[in-house]
Structure prediction request, 766 residues.
Amino acid sequence: MTSRRAGEKPPVRRQRRLLVVSYRLPFRLEEGKLAQNAGGLVSALFAYARAHGSQSDPGGFEELVWIGASTNSAAELASAEREADMPRVRLVPVTIPPRLDRQFYEGCSNDLIWPLFHSFPDLADFRATNYEAYQKANALFCRLVEKEARDGDVIWVHDYHLLLLPGMLRQALPAAAIGLFLHIPFPSFEIFRLIPRTWRVALLEGMLGAHLVGFHTQDYATHFLEAVSRCLDGATDQMVVDSVHGRSRVGAFPIGIDAREFELERNTAAVQQCRDDIRRAIGDHRLMFSVDRLDYTKGLLQRLLAYEEFLERFPRWLGEIVFNMVVIPSRDTIPRYQKMKKEIESTVGRINGLYSTLDWRPIVYQYRSIPRAELIALYDMADIGLITPMRDGMNLVAKEFVACQPPHRSGVLILSEMTGAAAELREALLINPNDRSEIADAIATALLMSDEQRRSTWTRLRDRVFANDVFTWAEEFLDGVYSARSGTAVPTATGISPAGFRKMREAYRKAAQRVILLDYDGTLVPFHRIPSEAVPDDRVRQVLSHLAADTANQLAIVSGRSTQFLERWFGKEPVTLFAEHGAFRRHPGGDWQQLQADDKHWKNAVIACMRQIWKRSPGAAIEEKATAVVWHYRDMEPVSAKQRTADLERALHELLNDNSDLQIVRGDRIVEVRPKKFSKMHAAREFIGTPPPPFILAIGDDRTDEDLFAAVPPPGYTVKVGNGPTRAAMSVTNPGQVLALLEGLISPASMDPEAIHGAHRGADRI
Ligand code: GDG
Prediction:
């Protein structure tokens, strides 16, 4: 893959603005001087912003607006922007009240999401007040983004602090293209499910507000998709999810570094000065280096113990190697971090006490942030980079180490397989951070590696780090947002806006004859765990009677239900009933008529086939109808439901191979086998008649209703209940909104446009 540098962007960006939203802004002003905030996200994005913000970049965005928390005012930040010489970058500070910030940032973000997503469930704090603060803070970010946003903007939301924000933005700014990138791992479902049900649903739905949800690795993306399929109703297919917000894509976009910048900086005088100082301090000893923030995910103590085992088992290296361990101060006013720091320091003391000689210490420990020049000098000089986190989204230090190594004397990268970087840097010595003995062996192996071996390994690593740099990452992600955003425009319906509704009501009023076709389950009533209990309430009956009372209206319920069920609940209503997807019809007060004769011999074979799979499918049910056989999997555990239903479909296709009179139809958590000649389309066409009346309205929620929509000639109205691909032109979110829509048609005064407006999706295309 080749790296696309700033200046080689597609020209379309020139007309757009990019809004970057992260918890923190990339830098602050300290005593009038610019200081970059710490962290991988900031390092990576700041490099991208700098490249795009410079005057000399002919491509790039019209403007890059970065929205995030800051202790500086907008005016101070404006002078920082000038100092940073980034005329096309504008910083917008978010002011979060201190108490809210504590609960949102420290509480929910760092004490719940951070430990859980890094697979440390014992450290997670599930306090509800913190989650409430998280919601509020995300809403606060949303308001600020709304204020800044213009039509056509691309909004790029970053990281675990803002997982609810994309959902809020998709509602508030339907014309925007939204991307979310998660910089930390996404955990397996066994861990994710520890989050209380309503929160975890909200978090996933919030994330799915983005048109593109990006992760560092395919593993994280797969974990996310599994959580989605287990927690939400939306359908997932490969890397695409249909949720309450419409369609989203999911993908792996491993973050990179500004590798060339690191390479260039290696040759600066400041770095040379640091190199000289370090060489004077460590003499001829081999140098092993690590740098991490103080955090339990980094495996700091385990790393020291592994080094101790190395010294014990490989005594020939005593006096030969120095381990420079730099730990960046972080959250050390919190007791858990203080304790960790004490343990690290007492272990360093113990190992140094045990092995030091007058002229040698095995560990040089520094608890401080180091200047960039010193960091680059250490990367450059280190014979071994020892990077052993217990869990890490990516770990940019590994890539920076590779980028800074000199070609003539390249060192060895020892890397934890629990980092996202390990998925890319396969040639490194990969270790399990819990396995001290393996780490000790890896250090010994690295020290004995031949020049040739080290060089060839490093060359391959370097090529990848340079090819997949931060620019490639950002470009590919943003290209992904564009294509995901335009991809969502194809199959989904548009929410009904108040203006859209007024137009429909106008047409309804003007028409002397009208046909209204309504599905039942999921359209007039919500789904129920037990289908026989999904019965119409008074509101449904009232709406139907009011509609039917108008002699201009012809009203039909077109359902997959049996004749018995429909007659029991609607037998006395002035409504035409179509049962079993149009196989039977009953006019008000009349008898059931089977519309076509059925040949039933196929049913036993289908039932026998279904029973084979039903035996291994707890929660599944088989229903025999007069003209169809239905497999219900609503009550199955979602993941096995997916597998078993796929097995079933395969088996049915095999069974029905040469029977072209039957069809296998997927509905809402059902698979139905029925004769092709029965479909809602035939029923609807017959009911609509020729010539069609001036007003037709069809409402339905599942795949069988697509047939209903197909039967409606223009300028008829088709309304899909729920999200997902559809040929319907409009959508509402639930049966409550269907009733509000129908009530609105009959009696404009009771109309509540907000109740129908609901999720207003895909109104504008980009
Ligand atoms: C998150 C994820 C993911 C560190 N110490 C000093 C210093 N640094 C710079 C490094 C590097 C960055 O900070 C650390 O990057 P990481 O990737 O290790 O980690 P996080 O900041 O925790 O970031 C992580 C990352 O997001 C990006 O997606 O890789 O997994 O947790 O750039 O150079 N810089 C200076 N002095 C230091 O002492 N100057």
